[in-house]
Design a protein that fits this description.
two-stranded antiparallel sheet, 269 residues, 12-stranded antiparallel beta sheet, 20% helix
Length: 269
């Protein structure tokens, strides 16, 4: 302890100094008479108003500890947190192939565009080999708007329908299966954990699948921060067309191109 630590410290050190001097002298066989030390005088002198040394104890100023940065979420958790946000928005190109009995009869082109902002969404799909060449769908609030080729827009109640990418992205029963390079980007591949559960989920969101024993797979590629890069799904089911069972396979893929500035508007009042 510093000898400038106050009255108690100074008195104790003075006494120890005197006793120590006597012990040292005795150890070497010398006779040493304890000097007449005026301890009280020393203490008084050290506490006189004219002393220039401060008796206040000093301590270092504590330094503020930096706030630790939060640990980043695993890609799967970050993804699940991102896609359920009310302001989540995206634009993606789409491609689809539909096969009956192993023969491709409708092939969607890469000009397909899917857009969404929250629960509102729109879809533009161009087909070859089907009954129409272009299908447009817009869903806003409780309304659904639909248009084929050059026909007029029709408006109906939306019910619980949504554009395909939204319900695909919001499925939560996924597992991270490792890293891939997808569309030139390093990604984590997310896949369905329970195929039966997912197929049941899929049936509830797509018209005309009830009772068809639909089976579907889903793969989603995301960046480290959870941002989706691509989605691929394969749907297998057997609808009855004109009294004939038609085994059908639909392959659909989405490549995400935009996550801001997406606006969905109604095509008619």
């Amino acid at each position: 302890m510093s000898k400038f630590g106050g009255f108690t410290a100074f008195s104790a050190e003075a006494a120890l100094w005197v006793a120590g001097a006597a012990l040292i002298a005795g150890a070497v066989g010398a006779h040493w008479s304890m000097p007449n030390v005026d301890v009280a005088g020393l203490v008084a002198a050290s506490t006189s108003p004219g002393a220039s040394v401060s008796h206040a104890p000093t301590s270092p100023t504590p330094k503020a500890k930096p706030t630790p940065s939060p640990s980043p979420l695993p890609p799967l958790d970050a993804y699940l947190k991102l896609v359920v946000r009310s302001d989540f928005q995206f634009e993606a190109t789409s491609k689809e192939t539909v096969s009956f009995n192993g023969k491709a009869v409708i092939s969607g082109t890469e000009s397909g565009i899917e857009s969404a902002h929250g629960d509102d969404c729109s879809s533009v799909q161009n087909y070859t080999g089907g009954s129409y060449a272009k299908l447009q769908v817009v869903m806003i609030g409780s309304d659904e708007y639909k248009k084929t080729d050059n026909a007029a827009w029709t408006k109906t109640a939306r019910g619980n329908l949504t554009c395909d990418p939204i319900f695909l992205l919001r499925y939560t029963g996924l597992a991270d299966k490792g890293t891939d390079t997808k569309n030139g980007v390093k990604t984590h591949r997310l896949e369905v954990s329970d195929a039966v559960q997912y197929s049941s989920y899929y049936e509830k969101h797509v018209e005309g699948l009830a009772g068809t024993l639909a089976q579907s797979t889903l793969k989603i590629w995301v960046k480290d921060d959870g941002t989706p890069v691509a989605v691929e799904t394969v749907l297998s089911y057997t609808p009855t067309v004109n009294g004939v069972a038609r085994p059908t396979v639909i392959n659909t893929s989405y490549a995400f191109t935009k996550f801001s500035g997406v606006t969905i508007t109604a095509p008619i009042k």
